[in-house]
Amino acid sequence: MKLKKIGFALMSLVLILTMIPAMTSAASKLSIVVEVNGDRVSFPDAKPFMDKSNRVQVPVRFVSEALGAEVGWNSKSKQVTVQLGEDTTVLTMGKKAYTVNGQTKQMDTVAQQKQNRTFVPLRFVSEALGAKVIWHKDLYSVEILTGLAAVHEDNKEEIKKETSTTETPKYIVDSWGRKRRIEGETQKLTAEGFSFFNSYKSGLGVSYESVNGKDLMFLQSTIHFDRDGVDYNQQVKDLDELLRQKIDTETVDKIMKYVKQKTKREDELEAKEFSDKTYGIQVESSYWDNIYISIWYK
Question: Which of 47, 79, 125, 196 has its CA 20 to 30 A from that of 263?
Answer without folding.
Answer: 196
